[in-house]
Write a structure and sequence with these properties.
alpha/beta; 264 residues
Length: 264
């Protein structure tokens, strides 16, 4: 069996994906996030090797600090995946997260001027604003899901990955907008947002129009029927109580304490 190597892009349902993997794989490890902009603090192959020595039963890794543009030498043991979100929605969600959760008191104009957040998904994948490289990386992945088609993506993910059986989930870390995203800001601001995310928009379109349809085409069941059944049954889904306790204990012991010791 191959285990997941999940590249978590901010504000793209990554917390929920982590929980789904934990629910299937008790020893799935969420790598502690380090400085987003400093490649020296990103997890590298040496870090993964050191973690595997102390936690030999690790059943996959995921997190912000695992970078697709770094070679981990795990191709034979792991399956790579990520989720993308419609770029304008993701960008606005990232802004509100920074403002409301991180308590950074800045305006949308100041956020737009900060180049760290423009074309964020492209840079997360390639390490720079390199659309060709980002597309190539995603093409090599075993799966790329879409937040806007989340339940359907989970069915496709289960069909393509070796390690996932249960895809039931509880929603976490999600911000519900009280009105459509384009009503928060003027059209002038919206155009600026689209402009600073032009590469992300093209990248998302590539996945939506090219990669994602190939997953649908190779799906082993009846996707429409499975989607209707899953979406209905998942509304009241709760993670097993003792399973959640176990994964939290493992996450504290290895996901935080051990990683802090190894990186200090």
């Amino acid at each position: 069996m191959k285990y997941p190597l999940f590249f978590h892009i901010e504000k793209a349902s990554g917390t929920t994906i982590h929980d789904i993997f934990r629910n299937n794989l008790l020893f799935y490890m969420v790598v502690k996030p380090f400085d987003d902009q400093d490649i020296k603090r990103a997890f590298n192959a040496k870090d993964i090797f050191r973690l595997s020595r102390f936690s030999p039963r690790a059943e996959g890794y995921g997190g912000h600090s695992i970078k697709p543009y770094i070679s981990y030498g795990l191709d034979d043991e792991f399956q790579s995946l990520t989720f993308l979100r419609e770029p304008v929605s993701r960008y606005i969600s990232h802004y509100f997260y920074q403002k409301e959760v991180m308590a950074i008191d800045w305006s949308i104009d100041e956020f737009i001027k900060d180049e760290r957040y423009s074309n964020f998904m492209t840079k997360r994948l390639s390490g720079q604003e390199d659309l060709i490289s980002a597309k190539s990386i995603l093409s090599s992945f075993d799966f790329v899901g879409l937040v806007e088609r989340f339940d359907e993506s989970l069915l496709l993910m289960r069909d393509r990955l070796d390690c996932v059986e249960s895809i039931g989930y509880e929603r976490r870390n999600s911000r519900v907008l009280r009105k459509p995203k384009d009503e928060f800001f003027s059209e002038e601001i919206m155009e600026k947002i689209r402009s600073v995310n032009s590469l992300d928009i093209e990248l998302y379109s590539y996945v939506r129009d090219v990669l994602y349809p190939s997953y649908i085409g190779s799906y082993s069941g009846c996707l429409d029927e499975d989607l209707e059944s899953f979406s209905g049954s998942n509304k009241l889904y709760k993670y097993p109580f003792f399973r959640r306790l176990l994964w939290r204990a493992y996450g504290f012991l290895y996901g935080r304490s051990l990683q802090f010791i190894l990186k200090s």
